[in-house]
Amino acid sequence: MKSLATHFLEECGALHLVLEPLSEPELDQATAFKGWTINRVIQHLHVWNLAADMSLNGDGSFSDFYGKLEAHRAAGGTMGSFEREWLGALSGPALVEAWRKGSEEIAGRFANADPSARVKWAGPDMSVRSSLTARLMETWAHGQEVYDVLGIVRENGDRIRNIVVLGNNTYGWTFKVRGEAAPEPRPHLRLTAPSGELWLYNEPSETELVQGLAEEFCQVVTQVRNVADTKLTIVGANARNWMSKAQCFAGDAETPPAAGARKTAVGR
Fold first, then answer.
1. What average pLDDT does this structure show over 219-234?
2. 158 backbone φψ class: left, alpha, beta (φ>0; ψ -120 to 50)
3. 209: domain range?
4. Contacts of 243 (CB under 8 A, 6+ apart)
5. Do 144 and 180 lie in a common domain?
6. 147 and 20 co-located in one domain
7. pTM of the predicted model, to two decimals?
8. How far apart are CA 77 and CA 149, in angstroms?
């Protein structure tokens, strides 16, 4: 857990470096993700980091939090409006700093937790390890729209292996959430890490294969890029089917962005 907590903190730290210099108006600019502003992105990350911490604490506070969210939505509210209410007047640079400080505190508590212990979440219960992996993945995925709108090409580290593993482990989930049976065999993954190391997953195959940069695989399974906007080599019907709708996150089935819709801004 200590190394996973370190990876989570590194991802938060990298994002904080690009957020810290931004003014209130700059934090209010819209991203390509559903028109969310940067402020909205950090609001979402901060609230659900706090929720994961409540879940880890196991004192019933997460169930109370989630019950209030469900009641808010049943009354016609949105997740965004609930998050704003939950945080009160916190926004802009003050929100960025609260998120950074909270990330450090949460990482410290997760680092010393039992990785196999079960914790509550919005869907099925999950392990402590999976809970923190999900926070890392969300930070990385939602961070992408921030990097994109600011015209920054992110430099990834091998900590994204956590997202590769999550993306591979949720192969079945991609189909289950759509009411479909996961086709077998699962495609072989042959991915090149940021360090240049080769990462291999699933049974070797030349007829069902996803090959290329680990970073681009992560972009597809987190739905921050359409597979057509990557250089991944996709071989086989199962691989093409998976990469056309891969979804490593919980919730309802989501449609990946259209080709060309998500990209790094130029001329910034």
1. 98
2. alpha
3. 161-243
4. 210, 220, 227, 232, 234
5. no
6. yes
7. 0.94
8. 27
